[in-house]
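In the current project phase, the collection of sequences with tokenised folds has grown. A sample record is quoted in full directly below:
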Amino acid sequence: MIRGLPNDHYHAFADPMVFVLVGLGAAALWRPDRDGSDPAPDPVPGSAPGRASGRASAVVAGRVLAAGGVLAILAWAAPHQPAAVHPDGGFPAAVTAADRIEAATGPGRIRLLAIPDFKSVESYAYPLARGGRGLQMGGETSEATLTRDSVAASEPESLVVICDSLFEPVIGAACGGSAEATIVPVALGDPIARFEAAPGRWISVYRGAIP
């Protein structure tokens, strides 16, 4: 796992396997007899009572161990639950950023670009689409176009660049100006708005589409 990147997919695949293994172990301790019969039946007349008593004690010990193990896992997991909202603001922060993008761009077409180019624009394309824009993903996940059907084609277009500072070593420049300059044509000039949508995620809004 890399610090700063989402790890949910690891839990999605690994957690069920852990639950199954814990469940199988607890079941084996709880019911040591494979046939599911009572592992400590009444002693058969003439058999040694100590043997049945020993089996019963082993079963009780196994069940106590199984219950104690499950309770210990629950006790550890309870205070380690993830926060309802991610520390970076999660989806509410993305919605706020989408509102700020809308306020800066106006009703015209919006083109989203992410840098580096292997980053997806979906974090902000989705809340913009929920706001009523039509979404058309580009040839790469790092680009998308958002439009409104009722808006005239003459409305000015905007370019929105999303830069993730976690990947500044890959970009070779810092977000917030230098990195954006590597892909934004000089003809577009300075951004009409620039803000940090979440820690390390910079959004720059330029008036005009990429030629």
